[in-house]
Amino acid sequence: MMFSREIGQQERERLLLAPYAMHSADSAGRVHQESAHLYRNAYQRDRDRIVHSSAFRRLAHKTQVFLGTMGDYHRSRLTHTLEVTSIARTIGRTLQLNEDLIEPLALMHDIGHPPFGHAGEDVLNECLSEHGGFNHNAQALRIVELLEHRYPNFPGLNLTREVLSGQRMRSNKKSRSEDRGQESPLLEVQVVDAADSIAYDAHDPDDAIEMGLLTLGELADSQLWRDATKATQQRYTALDQHETRRAVVHAVIDRLAGDLLTATQERIGKLQPGSTTEVQSQTDLLVAGSTELVEQQRELESLLFERVYRHPEVLQQRKRATETLQHRFEELTRGHILLPENYLALVPNEGLPRVVADFLASMTDRSALDGREYGDRENYVTVATIGLEK
Questions:
Q1: Which ranges carry the HD domain (predicted)?
Q2: FRET pair for 305, CA 20 to 30 Å: which of 1, 97, 148, 262?
């Protein structure tokens, strides 16, 4: 029965997926070998392992852009992740890619974020400036390869090599953009990156308007939002302010996703790749929007940076968050407060600063702000009591 079901999954992929998609039958497997599951393919198992991880659950209380203290409408890191996954699956299905692979890639893509979003990431990067720095994409790999403890036979989640490789390419994205001679990612990985951009270009302005940091009129300085607003007003004649905003958000997503699909299908049509190997041999990404829409996204992101991400209220919250995290790091590395034993066990191999960053990065905004994770628990000991050096 197991054999027939496995063949059934492979046959389904053969019928539905393009030859340039990543088929589960061609997976390079896992670092720690495991037998096949009765009714889930390898990428479906990856999805479930990520969703059931403690790091994934904590995303519900981690900052996307705005801290939870600023309201309860705006996106958390978890809701952003789910929105990226939804957009990515839609794009992937249209391109006949492997949605089962896209899903774990998308669900994992932000799992390494510390509390307070990019502000927290900047603090930990500064704290680890002499220890290799901190990057949320690289931290995601540490979580799924080392820090999560859910199985008795191996550390981490033992995800497939395709998911790990996709995340590794995300962590190396800056260097890739500077040297396009490197191997391109699988199309499924490219789709998740594109969906991430679409999600925050639509939803960060929506959150900012709801919080009173920006108006729909101010967003008219962006060509992308101006065109989406005009299209919405032509389609609907009697919407109130809130209905208009929601309709414009939908229009922005549709415009970006539609343009991405059109431009990507055109590139794929010209290349006619017959395998993932041909995709990865390309020097330029195949999944990308048109030049016009990419420029409009850049224009919007510049506007958001100046008027939202640098808004005085946001900067005030960021300052409070960064000071808190900096203080926590100093306390822990000096051995003045408690640290869980499972983290201390990593210190001999990883070094105390890195392990402290691992611990702090695992925290939610709330626990980092009020120190509730520092309670007097039986499985916590002070760094000082076991003689570990900074």
A1: 77-201
A2: 262
